[in-house]
Amino acid sequence: MPASFQLRLLFVCLGNICRSPAAEIVCRAALNKAGLAERVMVDSCGTASYHVGSKPDARMLAALQRAGYSYGGHRGRQLRKSDGESFDLIIPQDEENLDDVQRLLRGCKAQIRPMSVWFPQESELREVPDPYYGDSADFDSVVLLLEQSMPQLMAYVNERLSE
Q1: What is the CATH number of the domain that holds 43?
Q2: How far apart are CA 145 and CA 94, in angstroms?
Q3: Domain-embedded: residue 1
Q4: pTM of the full structure
């Protein structure tokens, strides 16, 4: 990672083919729009090795495309112990992944906070739902939830960058 990045974010889900790459893509777009892309590095990974080397799920790529995002070439990878030292903030998408990340990266320097921290106040959800066994509407809902969470996440990023 280039030394020029002042903040490094890592989104995490189970397989790194649905929620976490979507979060990475939506966040990267928000950072570009805010003029922060040169200062903040974004990546994603999964806690399991099922999809290492795979593209994101075609249904998620279609949902992202419908929302105006383009695929940047990401390939699935698994969470590494070194991620706990390489990233400043690790953002699991659900409670199970939060538990796994906390267990796997116990004592790391990175801050670990669930994506739900940045959900809109009116949201009744407590985690990003896994759309894998759902239909296209479930994938669209995940993209929308991530988009609705970006203003709060960008405020946090700005706060961290001004420290």
Answers
A1: 3.40.50.2300
A2: 13
A3: no
A4: 0.96
DSSP state of 78: B
Q: Has 126 been annotated as catalytic?
A: no
Residue 116 falls within a domain, yes or no?
yes
Domain count, the chain: 1
Q: Is residue 23 part of a domain?
A: yes
Asked if the model's pLDDT at residue 1 lies above 80, the reply is: no
**Which position among 13, 18, 45, 108 bears the catalytic label?**
13
- pLDDT, tens only, 61-83: 999 999 999 998 999 999 999 99
Q: Which of 18, 19, 27, 28 is catalytic?
A: 19
Task: Give catalytic status of residue 130 as yes or no.
Answer: yes
- Note whether residue 40 is domain-resident: yes
112, HSE (Cβ side, Cα atoms, 13 Å): 21
The one-letter code for the residue type at 67 is A
Dihedrals φ, ψ of 11, to 5°?
Answer: -90, 140
Half-sphere exposure at residue 13, Cβ-oriented, CA atoms within 13 angstroms? 25
Reported as a single tens digit per residue, the pLDDT across 14-44 is 999 999 999 999 999 999 999 999 999 999 9
Please tell me which residue in 57, 83, 94, 130 is annotated as part of the active site.
Answer: 130
Q: Which domain holds residue 30?
A: 7-161
- pLDDT per position as a tens digit, 81-99: 999 999 999 999 999 999 9
Instruction: Name the E strands within 32-107.
Output: 40-46, 89-92
